[in-house]
Protein: Polysaccharide deacetylase
Amino acid sequence: MTCMHALSIDLEDWFMVQNFANRYSHADWDRLELRVAANTAKLLDLFDECGVRATFFVLGWIAHRLPDLITEIEHRGHEIGTHGYGHERVIDLGPEAFRRDLFVSLEHLARCAKNPIIGFRAPSFSVDPTQDWIFKTLSDAGILYDSSLFPVPFHPDYANAGVPLEPYEIRQGLMEFPMTCIPRFGMNIPCSGGGYFRMFPYQWFKYGFRHCEKHGRPGVFYLHPWEIDPGQPRVTGLPLSKRFRHYVNQHKTYPRLRRLLHDFSFSPLKDVLELG
Structure:
């Protein structure tokens, strides 16, 4: 396995996030402003500028409504993976509902992507590594790798401190590419993107990816299109913690991302894992 890092985009829009789950139901989604196409176009242009390719974990709901966007992403050389259909937490869905959600997402992706879908990332990293039904369902669907486990001891929505830091086979024929963390102060500190990329100093990410290279393991970076969009609608009345996590430093995300792409080499997850 090479030590090139993996670049990933969780393709969802601003109102689909777990922080807003109690504010917007699925019934609300069709009336809300879709901004994902414009934000994704901006990311695609940046990736072309930097000469990098990524994995886009696409929500089936997005593929259903914007199939041309998914076709364009693949046409420009990027891998398409699945993020499920309705951005519901896997562990909350249970076996049967998760199977339906996954297969419906794959049906919509198959209509706008030519290449097989072999990668999955759970909404909100909502996978429990002790629940084999999750990984069996992925294998049954032809998925060859998952990238949903976050090896951190703290987070209100996910915490899987005991899993390995490097990619590993979580089930026969199924690789796990855990989110990048760096061991410090007796715990694993996130160094993989998203809100952490907006909250932590850029130098932490530069240090973290260099640390991975020194130890011969690839890192994985992730981002959502809404994180480069400080002009998105503002949701009022949120608890302070959720408001901070969603909105902090959105105006800094795009220039920081450009800097990261110039400082390190990135590829789609399937290429880093040498799959497909």
Summary: Residues 5-272 form a domain with the TIM Barrel fold (CATH 3.20.20.370). The two ends are 14 Å apart (CA to CA).
